[in-house]
Amino acid sequence: MLRETVEHFGTPFHLYDEQGISDTCAHFNETFAGLSFREYFAVKALPNPAILEILQNHGFGYDCSSLPELDLARRAGARAHDVFFTSNNTSRDELAAAVGRSALVNIDDMAVLEKLAELLGGSHGVDTLSLRVNPGDAKSANAFLGSPRDAKFGIPTHRLAEAVTRARELGVRHMGLHMMVASNVLDVAPIAQTLDILLAHAGMIHERTGVVVEFLNLGGGIGIPYRPTDRAFDLAALSRALRSRLTEWARTRRTEIPRLCFESGRYITGPHGVLVTSVVNRMSKWREYVGVDASMSSLMRPGLYTGAYHHITAPWIEDGISHTVDVVGSLCENNDKFGTDRELPALAEGDTLLIHDTGAHGHSMGFTYNGRLRPKELLLRSDGSVQLIRRAEEQERDHFSTLAFPPDGIPAPPRGLRPDGALHEATV
């Protein structure tokens, strides 16, 4: 079917597997069955309505961080607390939109909490609120997120009690905590540590304010095995570790187990996408290069993050003598590389390559530098059919569309006046 898809649609394109995504959703739900929990899919990972509808069929909510993502979730059928709005440096318009749609708002800073107070204007219009925590603990440093002390995200722990008290003044009755200090990890420990930290702060908040923290959001740090030699994340082991901690915490404090939330994106859809691209040039310089018709504008991770890896295969070339090559795009940037020092068979113009595990943070991180436009997205349906779910960007309809607008501007100031309205010295 892949060969027919390439012939029909042409390359490049991202192709997603509906059955694979659905199976992962079902596995996630089964693994945490019996716990009070919900997965809020990180819309930023794969913001396409056709994908969001698959996730909603499994009872998932949506983690959103912007106005367009809120609209995408709404179009997929999300209502009220189906949406966990986790934004940072949040504007008044974004906050108003999230509150207006009764989303579960995650407050990232005291300044945003005060914006919420202004928005409510004395009314008690928000029943439930989450606070994002910045633990400020260097031991929580992560290769992709860095040290929390250097991060722009979250309320410092020493201000949490103050934030809870302020939220109660605004009429908030149900409180939760959110924290994400791990990204793309394949070990259970960092996610379990996140829960430990949140439970400790939930206890502190109760002791200082009397408020019971009712839900905990562990973020979306669960990783996937990008390299063939990587082992898959043990979701069952994570479930056991979290259950044990939650049960013991509730027993010692004689309270109910808080509801558990995740905002996984990569784990849910990442392994179920490939970027399909064709060889444009086979080049010999100081290194050997395979140039393809996709660029970093279609898949930014390898160029953005040091050490980020995507496996690359040639599906229709029989095994033979391998060649060490760099697989590159056409941008005027030297980091426009999908892979370096890769062992691939002899490739020629027109050959097809698959760049694996692009089902999250692939197309969604795209951009249009050099006028290299973003490719189409396709969905392999469970019945074996292939559906176009996003067309490729086009020069006139998309790239140049913002150059067509009604004339607008500000007239020049009267002669003899500076732009700020003051008289020039020569005219005085």
Walk me through this protein's architecture.
This protein has helices spanning 2-9, 18-31, 49-56, 67-75, 92-100, 110-120, 160-169, 188-209, 235-253, 266-269, 301-304, 395-399, and strands at residues 13-17, 37-42, 61-64, 83-86, 104-107, 128-134, 155-156, 174-178, 213-217, 259-262, 273-284, 288-292, 312-313, 322-328, 337-345, 352-356, 376-380, 386-390. The chain has 428 residues and is of the alpha/beta class. It has two domains: 18-270, TIM Barrel; 271-390, Lyase, Ornithine Decarboxylase, Chain A, domain 1, CATH 2.40.37.10. Strands 1, 11, 12, 13, 14, 15, 16, 17 and 18 form a nine-stranded mixed beta sheet that branches. Helix 8 (188-209) packs parallel to helix 9 (235-253). It is globular. The protein starts with a helix and ends in a 29-residue tail after the last helix. Mean pLDDT is 92; it is low at 141-146.
Main attributes of the structure:
single chain, 428 residues, alpha/beta, TIM Barrel, Lyase, Ornithine Decarboxylase, Chain A, domain 1, 2 domains, nine-stranded mixed β-sheet, eight-stranded parallel barrel, 12 helices, globular
- CATH architecture verdict of the largest domain: Alpha-Beta Barrel
Strand content: 15-25%
CATH class assignment of the largest domain:
Alpha Beta
N-to-C span: 80 Å
Largest sheet: number of strands, sense, barrel closure: 9 strands, mixed
Helix coverage percent:
25-40%
- Please report the total strand number as a whole number: 18
Topology as H/E string? HEHEHEHEHEHEEHEHEHEHEEHEEEEEEH
Low-confidence stretches: 141-146
User: What's the rounded overall pLDDT mean?
Assistant: 92
CATH fold description of the largest domain: TIM Barrel
The CATH homologous superfamily name of the largest domain equals Alanine racemase
Count of helix runs: 12
When the domains are counted, the total is: 2
Shape: globular
Helix/strand-derived class?
alpha/beta
C-alpha-based Rg, rounded = 25 Å
